[in-house]
Amino acid sequence: MGCAGSSQSKADGTEKKIRKPKPWKHPQPITRTQLIQLRDEFWDTAPHYGGRKEIWDALRAAAEADLTLAQAIVDSAGVIVQSSDLTVCYDERGAKYELPKYVLSEPTNLIRDD
């Protein structure tokens, strides 16, 4: 038994389905190479912000997958999705995981590498 709001799946069968983040714009135009570098830096340092490494690994896999697979990944990892775009999640122990939009989708002002 747990508290009424502790489960990802509610008694009426509704659960938060993940979706793509809304379009967003980086403060300045950014190349794909720069975006990949930002993502790599985030994922390399994310476990140092707290939480469990296996949850960070699951969130990375979900961020890099299509929506159907991403949903299966977060469900199987026991991730509690607060924001349906995966920007705010929790694990079963209550640790908070915040993901920046740049690891979840591309900005509207992405420019070609030259």
Automatic annotation (TrEMBL):
Q: Which residues form the DC-UbP/UBTD2 N-terminal domain?
A: 15-113
Gene3D superfamilies recorded for this chain?
Ub domain-containing protein, DC-UbP/UBTD2, N-terminal domain
User: Biased-composition ranges for Polar residues?
Assistant: 1-11
Q: What is this protein called?
A: DC-UbP/UBTD2 N-terminal domain-containing protein
Q: Which organism is it from?
A: Lotus japonicus (Lotus corniculatus var. japonicus)
Give the matching InterPro entries.
Answer: DC-UbP/UBTD2_N (IPR032752), DC-UbP/UBTD2_N_sf (IPR038169), UBTD1/2 (IPR039869)
Q: Where is this region: Disordered?
A: 1-30
